[in-house]
TrEMBL record:
It comes from the Bacteria. Residues 3-194 form the NAD-dependent epimerase/dehydratase domain. Pfam families: Epimerase (PF01370). This is Nucleoside-diphosphate-sugar epimerase.
Length: 294
């Protein structure tokens, strides 16, 4: 597929782009920074500027596309990851502005130019646990996509707004628009770098619901979103199958989730950030268990 990928130079984006390229997709990266990766074209543009987004949406990816003499090819899909990636980087209102306006511009342009597959990055933070002031427990465990999304910070608010925006565009267009609620992204080198500390102090993982998503498995999930058609509007949790700490499910419940309603039976190493919907509807099969590397 010919894919416009926004935010491909970011932590999550570059691994997803690499995975897509390895699967044979043609990728044009729209970002404020260049992604130096073989087989990837770049366009420096600002997602909060509608004119720039519209221009890139109708542009050549590279010089080779001039050769046929048949005009600019259309994109088969748009994957939208570009964003201010968390709170405490920019003023809260700027984080909210860039993320919401940028997502509106990208989806609006994609729909108006007939791109019938749109995938956008939402976030684990939408459930209100990650960036809460103090400790906030889930309404129930494991957290699935039906869990309420009522956060209190500007970043997570922007992600909830983006989901509403995407749902509205899907209703108007009938296109496939899928949101991925991405959990804490772990790059391969971070297992040895960070996970020993998580084993020693599980408290460090409370805000991430003791879950994680390997960056390569996230790429696989994006590719599955590209491959599966006809779902309309859907959101999917993105996580690996197990906890990111050395405790069992029962031990985590006893220490952190005592009294929290349990919606379903869980295995002793099963993630509290349920990925069952992505497995069922997309054929998502995460492969990178931290125990393989640590």
């Amino acid at each position: 597929m010919r894919v416009l990928f926004t935010g491909g130079a970011g932590k999550a984006g570059r691994h997803a782009v690499q995975y897509l390229v390895e699967q044979g997709h043609r990728v044009l990266n729209l970002d404020l920074q260049l992604l130096e990766m073989e087989g990837v074209d770049n366009r420096v543009a600002d997602i909060s500027n509608a004119g720039q987004v519209y221009d890139v949406m109708t542009s050549y990816a590279g010089f080779d596309e001039l050769d046929p003499g048949t005009g600019v090819p259309a994109f088969d899909a748009v994957v939208h990851f570009a964003a201010v990636p968390r709170i405490l980087l920019k003023p809260d209102n700027e984080c909210f502005r860039v993320n919401t306006l940028g997502t509106y511009n990208v989806i609006d342009a994609a729909v108006k130019f007939g791109v019938r597959k749109i995938i956008f990055a939402s976030s684990e933070t939408s459930y209100g646990v990650c960036f809460a002031d103090g400790e906030r427990k889930p309404d129930y465990i494991p957290i699935d996509e039906e869990h309420p999304t009522v956060p209190e910070d500007s970043y997570a608010m922007s992600k909830v707004v983006n989901e509403v925006t995407a749902r509205s565009f899907q209703r108007r267009s009938g296109f496939d628009i899928y949101g991925i609620r991405i959990n804490n992204v772990i790059e391969p080198h971070e297992y040895a770098q960070d996970f020993p500390a998580y084993m020693a102090d599980p408290d460090m993982r409370r805000r991430n619901i003791f879950a994680y998503i390997d960056a390569r498995d996230l790429g696989h999930l994006v590719d599955r979103c590209l491959a599966v058609n006809g779902l309309g509007y859907e959101v999917f949790n993105a996580s690996n199958d197990n906890h990111s700490v050395g405790l069992t499910t029962s031990e985590i419940i006893a220490r952190y989730y005592d009294g929290v309603p349990q919606k379903a039976d869980m295995a002793e190493d099963e993630t509290f950030y349920s990925n069952k919907k992505a497995k069922r509807l997309l054929g998502f099969t995460p492969r990178h268990d931290w125990r393989h590397y640590l």
